[in-house]
UniProtKB/TrEMBL annotation:
<dbReference type="GO" id="GO:0006814">
    <property type="term" value="P:sodium ion transport"/>
</dbReference>
<feature type="transmembrane region" description="Helical">
    <location>
        <begin position="172"/>
        <end position="189"/>
    </location>
</feature>
<dbReference type="GO" id="GO:0005524">
    <property type="term" value="F:ATP binding"/>
</dbReference>
<dbReference type="GO" id="GO:0009925">
    <property type="term" value="C:basal plasma membrane"/>
</dbReference>
<keyword id="KW-0813">Transport</keyword>
<dbReference type="InterPro" id="IPR036259">
    <property type="entry name" value="MFS_trans_sf"/>
</dbReference>
<dbReference type="InterPro" id="IPR045915">
    <property type="entry name" value="S22A4/5"/>
</dbReference>
<keyword id="KW-0406">Ion transport</keyword>
<feature type="transmembrane region" description="Helical">
    <location>
        <begin position="195"/>
        <end position="217"/>
    </location>
</feature>
<feature type="transmembrane region" description="Helical">
    <location>
        <begin position="142"/>
        <end position="160"/>
    </location>
</feature>
<keyword id="KW-1133">Transmembrane helix</keyword>
<feature type="transmembrane region" description="Helical">
    <location>
        <begin position="20"/>
        <end position="43"/>
    </location>
</feature>
<keyword id="KW-0325">Glycoprotein</keyword>
<keyword id="KW-0067">ATP-binding</keyword>
<keyword id="KW-0812">Transmembrane</keyword>
<dbReference type="InterPro" id="IPR020846">
    <property type="entry name" value="MFS_dom"/>
</dbReference>
<dbReference type="InterPro" id="IPR005828">
    <property type="entry name" value="MFS_sugar_transport-like"/>
</dbReference>
Amino acid sequence: MRDYEAATAFLGEWGRFQRLVFFLLSASTIPNGFNGMSAVFLAGTPEHRCVVPSGANLSAEWLNASIPLELRGGQAVPSRCRRYRLAALTNLSALGLRPGSDVELESLEQEPCRDGWEYSRDVYRSTIVTEWNLVCEDDWKVPLTTSLFFVGVLIGSFISGQLSDRFGRKSILFLTMAVQTAFSFMQIFSISWEMFTVLFLIVGMGQISNYVVAFILGTEILGKSVRIIFSTLGICIFFAIGYMLLPLFAYFIRDWRMLLLALTIPGLFCIPLWWIIPESPRWLISQGRYKEAEVIIRKAAKINGVPAPEVLFDTAEMQDWKPQQQQKAILLDLFRTRNIATITIMSLLLWFFTSVGYFGLSLSTPNWHGNAYINCFLSAVIEVPAYVIAWLLLRCLPRRYSLAGIFFLGGGVVLFIQLVPADFNVLSVGLVMLGKFGITAAFSMLYVYNVELYPTLVRNMAVGATSTASRLGSIIAPYFVYLDAYDKYLPYILMGSLTVLIGILTLFLPESYGNSLPESFEQMLKVKCFRNRQQTTGIRNAKESPKVLVTPL
């Protein structure tokens, strides 16, 4: 059978049909930007201290001195979790003694916050932390909340990858969209932290899963010259737009329930897309459903205003190809040979550590110097130039060296943060932003690189498996942020070191630059088993045929 791209070349690269698919699939990822980082504000922890009951009969002096001081960030500040024993303070106040002059405060017995906490309203009016007092002894629940969200994403990524390979890209895309939107709405009515967290886990199952399926659907429908710009600019930039809108919504809506409602509503606008976005013809062909694929291709030709040939797929050739294409892939096919297994394991490690760096830096924005809303917005904005640079690198340079260089940049500057003097807060934030820039660019490039290595039959499964590794990294990322409570530089040392490590690992991967997407396991093996001479030939041929990567945009 003819190559799929050759059979559909008459459609052109950037007709009305391709533009429609490009922008609608990209726009469908905007809600993912909302939900992916919403925990930054939904689970924000404001400044807090122990409540001293109004009926404690303390003088004004003893009321002001009721909270002991502790050293935090090199400064003496009121304790968040302790107060002086209230009964002792009441007795001392009744005797007319004065704190500091008559009584040494350091000698007084302390107790935990038995009457609850009072929270600063300067940054947040209400979060799940203030709603259910997730501080002090229960502060471990905050990173666990975010981690369980990513556990849901992990489950969803794993399941959706196999389901979409078996039941189709389009069906699973809209199913995961529905899960994300419906359960986000149910979260608004949570009556306990446990209920919120369980629903958050289910939201996670639909969140990145539909992002991955939309990515696969777009790369399989669009041609070579548009595929890379879709993967690095289209779908990623629309995700970043959603991410940028998150702090904007959070700034004006500071109650967590109303914020969650505002972030849920945009998901409803994706419903009409069901009647516009088509199924992947590549997937239909891989399942032997040639007539359905032909209907979609002929409809695309009509939309583009170009004539379609009378015969798209020869019946005899289709029958010869059918047994191969109807075989069902399983996860073990990603480890079919020693070479494929090695590449798969290396890819899993790359995605895991990249995810730790990306989500670790993204979730730590409230810990940066300055305004939490501005920091989050800047963290989102920096992704746009990162995606542009990633696209340019994918167009012009081999995958391995581009990725390795970006990893070295991102990890190196994050490691350098510990050397910045304490007074240079703006420089520290700038280095974090540069690190986020590098890791974000690498993250978007990994999607393209991964797709180029696997054939149609298991491509979505491969992306789902590596995305699963990515989710494992995102699950532990909140605990990297949590390490800030012990040493403010420790999270950056760990994330920077891991990022440099995977930069080295990238240099051992095969080069896929300049090759068509593989359609079969045999083609996959050829791509993966290229020797240095073949890699060099592939790169030289790509340079001689720049149309492979040049976009008409």
